[in-house]
User: Fold these one by one.
Assistant:
Number 1:
Amino acid sequence: MKYWTKALPLLCLVAIFASCGKNDRSATTGWKMNDTKWGGFETKADFDGQDTPPNMVLIPGGNFVMGFTEEDVPYDWDNIPRRVTVSSFYMDQSEMSNADYLFYLDWTALSYGESYREVYVNALPDTLVWRDELSFNEPYVQNYLRHPATKEHPVVGVTWEQAREFARWRTDRTNEAILIDKGILNPSPDAKDDQVFVTDSYLSGQYDGTPRKSLKDLRTGGERDVKMEDGMLQPEFRLPTEAEWEYAALALPGLQANEKDENYTDRRIYPWSGTSVRYQRHDKNQGKMYANFKRRGGDYMGIAGKPNDGASITTPVMDNYPNDFGLYNMAGNVNEWVLDLYRPLTTQDLSDTENHELNAFRGNNFRDVARDPVDGSVLPKDSLGRLRYEYVKDEEAAQRDNYKIGRPYDYLDGDEQSFAEYATNEHTLISDKARVYKGGSWADRAYWLSPGTRRFMEEDKSSRTVGFRCAMISMGGESGEQSRGGRTKNRFGISPKKRRRARR
């Protein structure tokens, strides 16, 4: 004990000098970094990896066969199997609950309710989705969203548009909480309208809140706000893409006999192993339903006292057995919105030379921050505190090689000319507002529990059987948390010191 007490000051000095000299010169130019005398270019030498967001699980990326793996019972033929690769990402353990959404509604009413009541009204779920001509569901209409007994049940009656707005709000509240916890900002619960914290506005220097402390600006010697380069702020929350959702639901790494051989021991019909919807192991849980679904006509929960799914409608969001990624209710309980635009003829032979098989997604709608046409500066934020965005015009993309139009909804859509014209309301219900939802629900048969199945609904409509969860990209290593705590060696066991020496 005495030895460590005496050695502690020396160890502190060593740590200080080591940190001062760590990556303080460019490996390519020899130019000093993080030094005011040398221009003050800053680099985050001690960044130790992206923090896992609240309620989320890291999903390590990989490739898988996306689409149907079993018989296409309805003969939709709208999800042809094809191999794609998904980059690492984070995903919510469970669907968003009523409690989660009520917090969002409360904040929206507090921040925008006085001046912009319509913002709060537009965020309200449609509780009338519970009504039915031949069912007595009025208690759910009145109580499902707000009663404390159902606070942990998944929120329903939320449109795709509302789910995206929730994800946007979650991004801002999470980053605001980070800056408050770091001592950068003071809490501002009374902020209204354009004074609320919005991540994009803050990063552009347009947030008017009261800072608690600022970071030292090595370029000017003064102070500055936090930048994305500092590694404090999180990327945006969003809905998962269809490929991400399906990959996460299948949890195929759980079938690998050995992590190093890349061989799967079996396919999966459901998010769990085997062909049964019941728990098969010989223990106290044997016979219990893996998911909350409709077993047959009129049977939503089984006979009282027997192994069943335990609910006539939804169950709490973490009430069932998780899959191998630790995700709950990737089958049953409620269907879930995903980011993709629905198209029935998703092509099966996308050319990998164009990288379409990496992070597969349909529905891109490219936007850029609105800027002054004269000096290129970011335009002032709007009355809700948000930056203004403009859609990319086709003429702006015409000279590019990687994309040619701003809204490539119908690109490579499976028709002969790789461009489909959908005559909405004439002979199809498919439009540019049709969005995919997946997973099956408490009111669906077992067929829809398979991750490869898919359905669609207009983005401005909602249902008592559809909810959502959020996702976020993982920036950095594909194995995720390998960089947490500092990555001292590369994957071949070579230290950064040796790597830098080899580069010189």
Number 2:
Amino acid sequence: MEFKFKPMETTHYVSSDLLSIEMINEIVFQGKQLALSEEAIVNIEKCRKYLDDKMQSNSAPIYGINTGFGSLCNVKISNENLSKLQENLVKSHACGTGEEVPHEIVKIMLLLKIQSLSYGHSGVQLVTVQRLIDFYNHDVLPVLYTQGSLGASGDLAPLAHLSLPLIGEGEVYVDGFRQPSAKMLKKFNWEPIVLQSKEGLALLNGTQFMSAYGVYCLIKADKISYLADVIGAVSLEGFDGRLEPFTDLIHLIRPHKGQIQTAERFRDLLEDSEIITQSKVHVQDPYSFRCIPQVHGASKDTIDYVKKVFRTEINSVTDNPNIFVGEDLIISGGNFHGQPLALAFDFLGIALSELGSISERRTYQLISGLRGLPAFLVNDPGLNSGFMIPQYTAASIASQNKQLATPASIDSIVSSNGQEDHVSMGANAATKTLRIVENIERILAIELLNASQALEFRRPLQSSAFIEMFVKSYRDEVSFVSEDRILHYDIEKSIAFLNSFQIELYY
């Protein structure tokens, strides 16, 4: 791991250049504007012209362009109704419900939809893509809902809600205020887009709902993985643990990449610590300490794998049918099917859940009155309950994560009169993975609350310079608990501290 600083560019030009998770993080969360590259403009216009010419010279049915959708694919639509067909599609498919999708994820969805349409295989108008860019650049965020996608015919319902404002329908957030899209268009003096043949389908077919959740979860996963190591190191010091399990020789004879990285990080984090180098009475630590490289490392490897899956997806065309101008072909396929993402989400959810599971076990060990620590990490235990109940909270959340980690991808429900007879349920996998991520932030916050408390009972010995700096920064927000107080507030402050902690990781 290294820290890098580089000059900020204010505009990202959408092109065929590969996007990475790290690039999206920089584009979205450092406030960059979007613009189409010349390459993207040429690709979009060339594909649109091809489709217009094709529709003038062709009377044969082409799925989704001059036919109905789903099981209505055999219903032929007249040329004069092609625009109405696409508008009807967007309106009829806007059937989302449940909680609203977080604004950060909506922003990522806009970027990913623009990227996918820019390759010139979707047949959309240039003005349509440009309007999506206008939405992005002016922080016009359509109101989307978490429930409604099967993760296979594309993310139909959420992408319909994303597209409604293009035609002046639905609702958006502008400047933090929810309002009708028609009002937003009037504010910016924009005319509604008149959708042409295939455009509605191009907008609604695609995996951008799942993909945006994946990108967001992966950005958070990198940070969680790092913080799990740092907080685990604080716990190891508070528990008076041993450094030998992190020795490089052990890991070189079982050379999983994440395992080696984790052990190396712990050696770096604890360098020059007085606590870790003092003589130990005990010869072994419990697994939740001794096996940190193996457990945290396996989660790191999983995150790396899932990153590869999503890196491929966000640089792909995922609508249907696909237009191949050079080959003079319009082919109906299944690039909208979210199976690769659903499986990856389930894997990621399990891996992250385990970071929470082992964290809760370390918290349990710290409050157990072992190795010279007072029971429940408080002076005068009995009169004071100390840190008894935060462990309950962590255990409750860890248990919920285990429930949420049950795979969504093993399920499928037939839809559209049997035409769509296998679906991925990747959207459900996406939303529950985000819940797992948020839960782990809470579990780690509770571990930090306990670990920093335990560390104080090792004084006057000092930990490493980095650990002492980290804990001092934390102590500015959460003070030592000398007697019972309402720990809810300390937990919330701990969560806020971790969320505010800025990390830039480049591997």
Number 3:
Amino acid sequence: MTKTFAYRQRFSFSTTNEEGEKMGEIIPHWLTKQAELSPNRIAIEWEDGRRVTFHQLKTRSQRLARKLANSGVKKGSHVAILSPNSMEMITAIHALSYLGAVIVLLNIRLTAEELNFQVKDAEVSHLLTDDSMLEIGQKLNVPVITSFTMAEKSAEKDVALQEEINLDDPFTIMYTSGTTGFPKGVVHTYGNHWWSAISSALNLGLNQEDKWLIPLPLFHVSGLSTLLKGIIYGMPVHLFVKFDERRVHEAIMTKGITIISVVTVMLQRWLHIMEEGERPDKLRCALLGGGPAPKSLLEKAKKRNIPVFQSYGMTETSSQIATLSPTDALRKLGSAGKPLFPAQLRIDKKDNEKIGEIVVKGPMVTKGYYNRDDANRDAFTDGWLKTGDLGYLDEDGYLYVVDRRKDLIISGGENIYPSEIEGVLSGMEQIKEVGVAGKGDPDWGQVPVAFVVPRGKIAKEEIYRFLQQKLAKYKWPKEIYFVDALPRNAANKLVRHKLLDLIDQT
């Protein structure tokens, strides 16, 4: 008799039977194993100084698992979590893994309408919320809604907890950032997360004294993947509720941080407040993701001796799938490196063209989107994922990410990449942030327009003078708007399709 889940069938996950035939790879539960290996080692360190060991984390998570079982959570249940970064959220993630539930991580910045779409789409039966989010949680159409405090007050049910992990089993569903259209639920298996951690370690290496700082939300793939790396590596994770450049800087300078995950805007803000000559003694890697970074920013980091390793990844790849190795960081400035072991990457392009769509394959790549056969057919071919991103490989096989396909501006037959314009304008000291989008034009089809968050006073004429020696004139923004802030999602990624909405506000 074959035991399987409906969503497994949709994505052709391997199945298991009672005789163990075709059994997926089995490993010990990773938190239980790490608690055995390093019971007194710090697992989580909070910005306020609180610490939790691996043994304490295991004990708390197993206790909460028995309490959640009392409310009906079981293997295969789809349980959503609505919470900012917190110890309770971390405990809940591990508790649900002990029950074999599938975790749906919700973005706390979304409206109730947006959240309702996701919980319905993911067929969520239970919702766990931070106490501060209970009010909005109660607006969602979920049968069972429980805050962390309410869950802790529940009685424990005598239930068998998972001692092993089947790497083929689904673990999380994370929705695409929704920068355009309806978000899709990306299904990650335990194996996706496992291989993401292993491939990262093979690239960046592991040191006994490593401590990884997470200023990113745990409902974002970069934050979650680092949290799980901490469990798999036996490495302390220093966690922030949210990014604050001054507190992050202080932690890097005083808390023994060796690795930090950031996106471009975070790196920009951090470097801006650094004093000349400051150099963190123990920092060995600033892992940069979230899209192409301006060359001027990378050069500024180089001057400050900040070891920035640009990476490329997305929700569908369980975080990074290509990273520039330490030995090539300066030689290939601006590159996202080569695909991690054992990932594969190629560029699908027309003959004689340099730039094309980035296509990837590997055990860290999702098998598909939840309940979206149409999207799966469009995105996957023979196991290869079409990323929708544009890039090229240089003569040495190093990846350079150019832009998102959907963001490409075609003006009078010329291809214009918004990130190229943004990269140039970011080199002006008077510009704090900049976003570029295509605007409809009766003569040219589309023209680029720029939205600038200034640092002090700056005139449009100064910007155009700066561009004269930097960009071909056809790439210049035809309009420049000064704004107070750019639209960003929870991962601090620029939401480019909302830029044009700012025109009415200027």
